[in-house]
Amino acid sequence: MSVSQNNGERLSREQAVELLDRHGISPTEQRIEIASLLFARHQHLSAEQILAQLSRQASRVSKATVYNTLKLFAETGLVREVIIEPTKRFYDSNLNPHHHLFFTDSGRLEDVPPAQVDIAGLPTLASGVEVVGVDVVIRVATRKPS
Ligand SMILES: [Zn+2]
């Protein structure tokens, strides 16, 4: 199933259940609701944005449930958690390896294909330690007139 080709506002209920199943997550109503919203397309949403979208749709999912569900999704690898600051984290439905561009003015996060970032070197690692991932966040701001 390709989530990027889904043009609808939401993933179908069946697709959401299948996605949860594949990650060993038991499909409760709230989890289905959150998954179908998040995986409708490749996007980065904060818990607050998900909560706001759910409440616009008159959903009865509580704030605590949204936070707990997103934590579970991140732990099981269903969603990628992108931490910009300890209090600013996004849930990324694009699981393909990629980096990010963070617009500090607007708070927007954009994907950067891995081929566009060249990492020239990494620190020497202690023996028994290996690199499992490199996540680059490039922070940009509107240039101030000089
Ligand atoms: Zn991303």
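^ zinc ion complex. The radius of gyration is 17 Å. The CA atoms of residues 17 and 83 lie 27 Å apart.
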